[in-house]
Design brief:
Blueprint lengths: L21 E4 L1 H5 L9 H13 L4 E2 L2 E2 L12 H12 L8 E2 L3 H9 L4 E7 L2 H8 L3 H17 L3 E7 L12 H14 L3 E6 L6 H13 L7 E5 L6 H11 L3 E4 L19 H10 L8 H15 L6 H7 L3
Parallel strand pairs: 1-2, 1-9, 3-4, 4-5, 5-6, 6-7, 7-8, 8-9
Helix pairs in contact: 2-3, 2-11, 6-7, 7-8, 8-9, 11-12
Amino acid sequence: MSTPELGLPMVVPAPDLPARVRIYEVGARDGLQNEKATVPTEVKAEFVRRLADSGLTTIEATSFVHPKWVPQLADAEQLFPLVSDLGRSSRVHLPVLVPNERGLDRALALGARHVALFASATESFAKANLNRTVDESLAMFEPVVSRAKADKVHVRSYISMCFGDPWEGPVPIHQVVRVCKALMDMGCDELSLGDTIGVATPGHVQTLLAELNEEGVPTSALGVHFHDTYGQALANTLAALQHGVTTVDASAGGLGGCPYAKSATGNLATEDLVWMLQGLGIDTGVDLARLTATSVWMAERLGRPSPSRTVKALSHKE
């Protein structure tokens, strides 16, 4: 008998936490882009549909980055039409990553209504990932945001290396705030604060959030994206929730990392996040059993077990 059937986790709410959290599921994009093997298009489409069936309402479907840079997602034009009917419902959003105006053109041609940019808080990562300085990348994003907003498309921006950089070490908070403010001033609807190499700790998280608020960036516009390199992803998530954040990025089964930062390991597993949130009495709308089954299904197709502790516990997989 699985633990949910025993009524576990026991629901014990904690004070001053949000009643509901939106999980921004990144497994189909951020997760699969870091796989060595290319997953067949039809399997990706089935993965997205199973994620939606589990109750997830924001599922990042793919990336319109040039195939040369992310060959695992070279099938974006073939994949998106296979799942776009989900995005036409009022319940499910299917954001896609766009690096520049060409990527935006490709996404809009297929009817995408939610797009995401990929910025950096550090010069080293901007150079490695975008082949530009931070300011040059912001200049590149400006027409993308302007055109998307003119077409009433929702725009998110990831900001990588918010808490530490594998080349530069600690990242000054004011440096992160500057990039975030520039993106908000540009017209982005929301920002995702990325702990790309998983070095954040709870006090750092809360201090950055407070500094952003002081500089006019509201908590309602912020999401968090933690990697579990040092086992801190859930602790950091709880710190963000205590500050009032209600959007948390996670990856089904803990898939993913970052192809441009070799010290980055897997994302926070969606199942581990849902287990914690259920115990806190926070609504997510996600059926944990269905989600776990989906991650087991995908792990079988990838030929390796899921790193998620919750998946292992509920599926009895070692």
